[in-house]
Amino acid sequence: MLQKKSSSALDMGNKQIKQHLETAQKTGILKISLQRLQDFPPQLKGYPNVLKTLDLSQNRFERIPEEIGRLTLLKHLNMSGNQIVELPQVLGELMKLEVLLMNDNMIAKIPDSLSNCTNLKTVNLSHNQIEEFPTMLCGLKHLDILDLSRNKITSIPNEIATLHVTELNLNQNQISNLSEGVAACLKLKTLRLEENCLQVTAFTPRILKDSKISILAVDGNLFNSKQFSDLEGYDIYMERYTAVKKKMF
User: Which residues sit opposite 247 in a β-bridge?
Assistant: First the structure.
């Protein structure tokens, strides 16, 4: 009895997936989330290259197959909430990709090939196992929002100077070293560094005075608010902060 029910549920799942695939050929949008899938639907292997949005979030994928490189029209890829350990180099072939959502996985390493995805605007890699800042994203001129919160990053390298984002979220990592290169980020307005391992001396006068950062979130590090407000350049940073807040209200 139980076996029959399980088979029926599987047939229903396959039927739903088939319907999604048929609809996606017309819309370019395929969403198959919350289905407990462990493997890519086999139908995708010979599927026409028409997809612009692929949402396979909240399943049980452990890997992304090489076949995804065929989907060269993709602009939006969401595989958040799976069990993925590594991103394949083939992702670099998705050169039209604008949104990459890989949060809430088990990813430890980011492929260098992502530097080929020059149209990326939003990347969410939060809540993974990343230990090194993904410098391959630094030269992407259209990248606007980068979320690397809740990882295991320990250091922000000098390459950050070439990062083009307006918002960078590094909350809840293990960062103890912050490069002054962050002051050279021409578009960076919001920098979130809450709950890390930073000393107050990490925030040099150059970062506070010369950067474009107007929202700098630093609670939960190895210093208190009084120590932070006593830093050279803090008053200049606060001028930028106040100006932004006035525009918001």
Answer: none
In contact, 51 and 32? CB cutoff 8 Å:
no
Burial class (CB in 10 A: 0-12, 13-18, 19+), 133: buried
Strands 190-192 and 215-217: parallel
**pLDDT tens readout for residues 77-130:** 999 999 999 999 999 999 999 999 999 999 999 999 999 999 999 999 999 999
Please give the domain boundaries of the chain with CATH numbers for all domains. Answer: 14-124 (3.80.10.10), 130-248 (3.80.10.10)
Average pLDDT over residues 39-60: 89
Whole-model pTM above 0.85?
yes
Q: Residue 9 pLDDT > 70, yes or no?
A: no
Written as six digits, the tokens of 145 are: 């929002």
Phi, psi of 42 (to 5 degrees): -60, -25
